[in-house]
Design brief:
2 copies of one chain form a homodimer. With 680 residues, chain A is α/β, with parallel strands linked by helices. In chain A, 56% of the residues are buried. The first copy, chain A, has 18 helices and 18 strands. The first copy, chain A, has 3 domains: 6-141, Chitobiase/beta-hexosaminidase domain 2-like (Chitobiase, domain 2, 2-Layer Sandwich), CATH 3.30.379; 147-477, Glycosidases (TIM Barrel, Alpha-Beta Barrel); 514-555 and 592-668, Alpha-d-glucuronidase, C-terminal Domain (Alpha-Beta Complex), CATH 3.90.1330.10. The model of chain A has no long low-confidence stretch (mean pLDDT 96). In chain A, helix 5 (215-229) links the parallel strand 10 and strand 11 (234-239). An 8-stranded parallel beta barrel of chain A has the order 7-10-11-12-13-14-15-16. A 6-stranded mixed β-sheet of chain A has the order 2-1-3-5-4-6, with helices on both faces. A two-stranded antiparallel ribbon of chain A has the order 8-9. In chain A, helix 10 runs antiparallel to helix 13 (479-491) and helix 12 packs across helix 13 (479-491). Chain A has helices spanning 33-50, 84-91, 114-129, 180-192, 215-229, 243-246, 258-274, 300-311, 341-346, 407-415, 426-431, 462-473, 479-491, 495-514, 570-577, 587-590, 605-628, 636-668, and strands at 25-27, 55-57, 66-71, 98-102, 106-111, 137-141, 147-151, 171-172, 175-176, 197-199, 234-239, 280-283, 317-321, 357-362, 386-391, 440-446, 552-553, 593-594.
Chain lengths: 680, 680
């Protein structure tokens, strides 16, 4: 029987057999609070895995048996064998990097900086738990991306926008209200996967959240920052661009108005009094009703730079979201294509942003759909710093009722080649460091946690949070590797974990099959975004239409249509614009096709829609059976809680299957060519 | 320039020229509080119309010039010329009836009872304002229906379910909170149109409203009752059938369980201590999630009779709603037809209910749609007391944004012949008094008022409240008569009022044209019920489907389909079951038809859908122009507030027109045969 303390996620207390001898003394200088935390985590980690607590010595005793923890720069005191300086040169560690070396009687873990040491300790413990550290072991690792951000869409009333795991960890009843221990546990989980930035409030800054940047609330925000800081995590605050007007009572929030700019400068000074290491602001401007520079006929660069100048003296950054589009579109108007919006708005301004502005670009042109092309901004944007935004919370991917293992699709995104020159896949762009050119500096993602006992509602959804951290650190890590790691860390090195790993890997393809077909997007219930509503967005203001008629479906985004494909590099533009070369999982994103269009498997588009929807449901049924086979291997609490979610998922998959199939059968009058039941 | 005090509705202060001499002395015995209110209303009414306040004398001076107000039974003191006794015999006044007689120097208004006197006074004042009382005038009138009820769907938090005119008049922040003067003004408005029963809380009895029947809240409910009582209005309370369990902490609310029955008896005794003349309870049981006798495998008669026995000693009634249907239907299942539900549930129990139980039956089988057939229960139900439920609040008819003059369709309902024997139209069934048989005893309606300054949000929606009162009093009154009366009472006897009257009369046909076509129902946005969402209910649990395919639309409810038509009298069953005799405005309620079905005008069904939707929009545009022509005749506040609603209505009508037309064009591939724009 596998016992799982769901609250501990991938940091389970589980007795393992170590592949090496772990000495019982830790040598570590007294360091900063992050270093000290690293030492503490090492001691606790050894205790939970090996059942003993090494003692900590502050006096480095060269030549002795022991565990040596420290900064690369401080390792000169450590035994010669370590060769700290050589390691540093050999690894060319970058910020937050670390090296680990295990010899017979000695273990060295050294960070390029304090967070690097903490990450090294967590990695060492993971590798130990995974049985991957044997006798002689060496590893040096640096994060590929500098910014590994988590976004909270938490509101001051305690609700979490698009949250499916209970209320906010931070807020309740209109203000801060948190359990310090819980926040510490959360920060520890995040640090263990390399997260280094957390934005603490919803990007839609409304109601009391507008007052977060006033003294009344900054005090509490400061306390939150104190906890996260110990784990190497710096906070961001989401601000309302209209604050000079709505909060400051100025006549305008025009970014070129000196009074507005001065208001921000003063406000920033106040904020940094309470949070001296604040990473900066996250801003959703001119987006879905939020105020922004467009209101004053200014550009986004005008808006972002004004804020950037205010935070610059404090070392702050402005993370500026590119989710800007016309959200009061007329469905009758086929000349407007929402997919074009982010590129159209921002490519022209490439180079116009200050050097402490970072654009946050959603991975796709729409909004976290189950399958979207990668945004054409990546690879095209050359002179503006930027990060990619992913979504861990399962807004469109099953609300943590349905299992949907997201690293599966993130891997596709990371490997997508933007075809802007050499080495231009997303993961290569992330690794790129070229003079005068901006690669992808990291990732940002809306998190999936809340006050639920297991953090993520669906226990297996912990894998998505874990996976995000791992991929943000290194986009080349595969979904399979992550699934294996996470399952083993959570459930142990055993057959059950392998089965769970397989269930995870099946889950995304299954979800995609029973969802909106072939990248057509938005057939989901409006507002809630759970379950099917095939025409739910068809006549709405949101700009996401499939325009299914009796004969055809989809939007022509080639040059003969909206021209969206031309936003890509010439190679990809050509690839996407031709149905015969366009990836089929995106074919309805780029093309309007007749139902009798022949897909590569020789079947019509219509029949492929039917087939995938029958299969998607069957896959969920199979996942449910797979899970049931684990009944005797898992304690009943975990088994049953996940079981009940699979049962709900099966209901949802059935609705998707039947509504999609019935919808298209009604449209076309054509049934399934294999005679399966489609309701009329 | 016509000044309108919107708050005063149809009881405007407006100087008129009286068609008779109104003496300056009122003779009236000191009576009960309703009689005294009648005298007061007469004096105030003369003041607001003629500009003087008659003095009141308690000493009847026979033979004198004067206004004689009293009960028929008390008129023996009045001058001989009155012939009170003869009048009574001549009119055969029933409960709440009155007679009015005007001679050269004397005016007599006598009620069969105190409310009758009050109604007589209000009627006299209306007729005076309308210029219909000249020199010698005689009128005797009794209400056709005994029960003329208003239902409030007001919640304790102050929100009004399906309310579009501001928050509740009664509640705020979880309990009673009302302005006594406002309630008095409201009661006066209701009394002026003959309303005699008001249920004060939402039929969905949830949250704090469950505590309404506890001492904490009954005190305030009693104060409310005190105000209404002075206007001849008795209250009803909506109760939660599960109260013995949820409130009384008994193990069950089973109606056949003695402890549950006893709990109700005790509770009723408590309630009547605070409201000695409470009319009774209104109950929504086993409906949309509310508890009911089905939970205990008991019948609705079991449930209603148990409550009926509890209120019987106090003269109370149980008004029991027949809105009982399966609200978790599977859209795949074509064997269940929600339209059948009320009849199926209740016809079998005809005669099983106690004599103080009154069934409240929605006018149609669905739920207040823009066009539904009349419920087959009317005329069929013989041995159970019952009333018809209408809806004044514009849930499905435009949220008091769109103008939709409801008496237009109520007139159709009143004139619908159930064909159950002789004189079996709704208005005849209402008038029917036969030994051992139950006609329709009256009407109940969800009201459209709230804290808005004009009571009803849309000022012209006051006409719907007025019209309801008039039709509940006498279902034979026509929509045109009511529109004329209301317009003249509100705006005066002038050309502007006539124009407004015409706008009212156009509004229902316009709304119906741009809405769901030909009785197909439910193409409205789920939950809010405003604006189109053509497939919004198509795959939902609510049982209201149109099942539009590429070829056909509608539900076959004939014997070859769900058999719903067979619930009607043989004559109507045959009428509805044959598309060639079925009224065309209901043809898609009863039939599934191909789009090329030829309608009586020679055009196809599809073309008729297009035509009505183009026309509906054009009608609204014309109404807007009609309204604009009144700009100089109306004060700007009223003009502009109504104007802005017409402008919003035009946007809504455009959405309905275009979404419906596009939907069907996409389905069929066939455009408009007159080449008008239908978006693809």
């Amino acid at each position: 029987m596998i016992m799982l303390k769901e609250y501990d996620c991938w940091l389970q207390k589980r007795k393992i057999t170590a592949g090496i001898n772990v000495p019982d003394t830790v040598f570590a200088h007294k360091g900063g609070e992050v270093s000290d935390r690293a030492v503490k985590e090492f001691v606790c980690g050894i205790d939970r895995l090996l059942g003993f607590k090494p003692k900590v010595s502050r006096k480095i005793a060269a030549g002795k048996s022991g565990v040596f923890l420290g900064l690369v720069s401080g390792m000169k005191d450590a035994p010669e064998c370590c060769g700290a300086k050589n390691w540093d040169a050999k690894c060319s560690l970058s910020e937050n990097g670390f090296f680990i070396k295990a010899a017979e009687k000695q273990i060295f873990i050294a960070g390029k900086d304090e967070p690097g040491l903490l990450y090294g300790v967590f990695r060492f413990l993971s590798l130990l738990a995974l049985g991957l550290i044997k006798n002689v072991f060496e590893l040096c690792d640096s994060p590929v991306s500098a910014l590994r951000m988590i976004n909270h869409w938490d509101n001051f009333d305690g609700a979490v926008e698009r949250g499916y795991a209970g209320n906010s960890l931070f807020y309740k009843n209109g203000g801060f209200d948190f359990d310090r221990q819980r926040i510490e546990d959360y920060a520890r989980l995040l640090a263990s996967i390399g997260i280094n930035r957390v934005s603490i409030n919803n990007v839609n800054v409304r109601a009391n959240a507008k007052l977060l940047i006033t003294e009344k609330y900054l005090k509490d925000a400061g306390k939150l920052a104190d906890i996260f800081r110990r784990f190497g995590i710096r906070l961001l605050i989401s601000v309302n661009f209209g604050a000079p007007w709505s909060l400051g009572k100025l006549p305008t929030a025009d970014p070129l108005d000196e009074k507005a700019a001065d208001w921000w400068k003063n406000r920033v000074a106040l904020i940094y009094k309470y949070i001296p290491d604040l990473a900066g602001f996250l801003v959703k401007a001119d987006s879905e009703g939020e105020p922004g520079p467009f209101q004053y006929n200014r550009t986004h660069a005008d808006g972002a730079n004004m804020l950037a100048k205010a935070v610059k003296p404090f070392g702050g950054i402005i993370v500026w979201r590119c989710f800007v589009y016309n959200c009061v579109q007329d469905w009758r108007d086929k000349n407007v294509d929402r997919a074009r919006a982010a590129y159209d708005h921002f490519i022209q301004q490439d180079g116009a942003f200050d050097d402490n502005v970072i654009l946050q670009i959603k991975h796709g042109p729409y909004d976290f759909q189950v399958r979207e092309p990668v945004s054409p901004l990546f690879g095209a944007l050359k002179k503006t710093r930027h990060v990619m935004e992913l979504q861990i919370t399962q807004e469109y991917t099953g609300h943590q009722i349905d299992l949907c293992y997201l690293p599966w699709v993130w891997e596709d995104i990371m490997r997508y080649d933007s075809a802007h020159g050499e080495k231009s896949s997303i993961m290569e762009l992330t690794a790129k460091r070229e003079e005068g050119l901006c690669g992808i500096e990291g990732f940002s993602a809306v998190v999936n946690v809340g006050l639920d006992g297991n953090w993520t509602g669906h226990t297996l959804a912990q894998a998505n949070l874990y996976g995000y951290g791992r991929m943000a650190w290194n986009p080349a890590v595969t979904a399979k590797e992550i699934a294996r790691e996470w399952s083993a860390l959570s459930f142990g090195l055993n057959e059950t974990a392998r089965k769970i790993e397989n269930i995870l890997l099946k889950s995304y393809p299954a979800y995609e099959k029973y969802n909106a077909p072939f990248g057509v997007c938005f057939m989901v219930t409006p507002n809630t975004h759970y379950g099917p509503n095939i025409e739910g967005y068809e006549f709405s203001r949101w700009g996401t239409y499939h325009r299914a008629s009796a004969d055809a479906i989809g939007i022509d985004r080639t040059p003969s249509g909206t021209g969206y494909t031309s936003q890509y590099s010439p190679k990809n533009a050509a690839l996407f614009a031709d149905p015969s070369t366009c990836p089929e999982n995106l074919i309805l994103f780029f093309h309007r096709l007749r139902y009798d269009y022949k897909m590569k498997n020789g079947q019509t588009l219509l029949q492929n829609i039917y087939d995938t929807h029958f299969e998607g449901y069957d896959d969920v049924a199979a996942m449910l059976e797979d899970w049931k086979s684990l009944e005797n291997s898992l304690e009943s609490e975990v088994y049953n809680s996940v079981l009940s979610r699979f049962e709900r998922q099966l209901v949802n998959a059935r609705e998707w299957r039947d509504q999609i199939n019935t919808y298209f059968r009604r449209k076309t009058g054509i049934g399934d060519n294999r005679g399966r039941v489609i309701y009329d």
